[in-house]
Amino acid sequence: MTDKKQVKGLLDYISLKPGEEAEYAPNSVDSIFGMGVGATKDANYYIVMGYLYDQILKQKGAIEYPSATQSSNATGRPRKQKILEVHQVRALHLWRKAQDYSEGIRQDLSNRRMIELIKKSQPLVGKSKRLWTVGSDESLEQSVSRGKTWWGIDHEWQSDKCYKFFYGVYPEKKP
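The structure assignment produced for this chain is given below.
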């Protein structure tokens, strides 16, 4: 039983003897398949960055999903797609605040209680003031419920989608 020869480029492939088995060498910092021997470190770096960028684009992230509210077939100018709508921002805000509490406390937090905590605990200025003072408490609760559905937040205020959106695709550790 012979070991397979590692092929790094076209010349290695051509130099194989008939019937000899080969495998492509894994990419490393110094050797990237298809770049050749004379490639500079900068060229290798940009190849790796392009590959990582491509992988990130292929990930199904939170910002790639369409709006949770369905557009109607009404006449007139079509609505612009916003990255996040108000109810989605409210739910994300409450999700982040809920992460400050232990899991035992989180499971008992209702939408109404979380809205009260936000209104009492933080000084509401600028856009955050509009986020929590416009509308009645019932409409805020409904809005948060729509946002929780879109983010996939469960009754214990846990959501992988929120986590990926807030901390990124490759976090060090989960809080």
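Interim note for the steering committee: The beta strands are 5-7, 22-24. The longest helix spans residues 41-58.
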